[in-house]
Design goal:
By secondary structure, the chain is mainly alpha-helical. The protein has twelve helices and four strands, in the order H-E-H-H-E-E-E-H-H-H-H-H-H-H-H-H.
Length: 339
């Protein structure tokens, strides 16, 4: 299933082999039928390694490239991704001033088995050195390290050393008292849960389990670009719907559609109250990670380029004008030339 805004990007899990119980023995009487044995003699089973980087990665080695769910035209323009998990990091990298290009891709082309992933530009000091792909779980760390590298290129070693000492002293004094940042981080986590559960659950149902939306969004944007084989498309469709259903049933013995939408409406209301009259969350002057997480969903719900046949999520969101303005503000300031 394509990654959403706050789902972690992981490698494909290996199938679990059944473990033998104590005292269990292998049945010696079982033999493989001759037709099956001859078939596997001709086509032996193989274990394939992790996906290699697509050949297209060699075309942009002088630029940071973010591989996301998007159309080919959207990739050329740098337009917002239609996938919340990808859009979160696309927006966050723009907030942080990272210069990068986007490339249209899918989970099967990712070396980690999921999107997004970041391929840093080749080192200017070592042009022949191949850059390693960075999964979404490590993009934030890479951004912080990239900022440090940039500062070190423009500052003398004495300035960098003095800055590190000041940071260490500030960290030591902060440990002696409860800081506002600590309480802010705790509040951030509480509101992140609204995105990870209430809004995400309604999104999963609306996108994958609502037949009209599946036909108008999932088929043309996720499935058809992945393969032209009819049987493969049918199998992938079943896989995506089953994955969404399984995810929802982890939290409830049955899928109550109205309850999903009610919980999502309550999440919108809580986020609207949190934002208030501010331009960005937590009263910040510039958007941060939480703004990117919220925008990743609100833009997908409001994007006029996405043909939502069942518009329950959009209608619920439009009840809160400050959330709508928050989405428009980010588009106008960070995506206007591309959207």
């Amino acid at each position: 299933m394509p990654q959403d805004a706050d789902a972690t990007s992981e490698e494909r899990p290996k199938p679990n082999r059944p473990k033998k119980q104590a005292g269990e023995t292998s049945p010696q009487w079982f033999t493989t039928p001759q037709p099956i044995r001859r078939l596997f003699d001709k086509f032996p089973l193989r274990t394939y390694p992790v996906n290699e980087l697509p050949q297209r990665s060699l075309q942009n080695r002088d630029k940071h490239t973010l591989w996301i769910f998007t159309t080919n035209e959207g990739a050329q323009l740098g337009a917002p991704s239609f996938n919340p998990g990808c859009l979160k990091w696309q927006a966050y990298m723009r907030f942080k001033g990272i210069d990068f290009v986007t490339i249209s891709s899918n989970n099967h082309a990712s070396p980690t088995g999921a999107l997004p992933f970041l391929l840093p530009a080749s080192s200017s000091t070592n042009p022949g050195q191949a850059a390693l792909p960075i999964p979404s779980t490590r993009i934030d760390r890479w951004i912080r390290e990239e900022k440090i590298r940039k500062r070190m290129t423009v500052k003398s070693s004495e300035e960098v050393w003095e800055e590190r000492n000041q940071h260490t002293e500030g960290h030591a004094s902060a440990q002696q008292e409860s800081t506002p940042k600590e309480s802010l981080d705790m509040r951030n986590e509480a509101y992140i849960s609204l995105l990870n559960y209430r809004i995400r659950n309604a999104y999963l149902y609306s996108l994958y389990l609502s037949p009209p939306n599946f036909a108008s969004i999932v088929l043309p944007l996720y499935i058809n670009p992945s393969t032209s084989n009819t049987l493969a498309r049918l199998a992938l469709s079943h896989q995506l719907r089953a994955a969404a259903e399984t995810e929802l049933l982890k939290q409830s013995p049955m899928i109550d559609v109205e309850a999903l939408y009610r919980d999502c409406d309550k999440a919108f209301e809580a986020l609207s109250e949190l934002l208030g009259n501010d331009e960005f969350f937590f009263g910040e002057e510039t958007p941060g990670g939480f703004d990117a997480s919220v925008f990743a969903y609100t833009h997908v719900f409001l994007d006029e380029n996405l043909i939502w046949k069942h518009t329950r999520l959009r209608e619920g969101l439009e009840q809160y004008s400050n959330l709508v303005e928050h989405q428009k503000r980010i588009v106008e300031n960070w995506f206007m030339d591309d959207a």
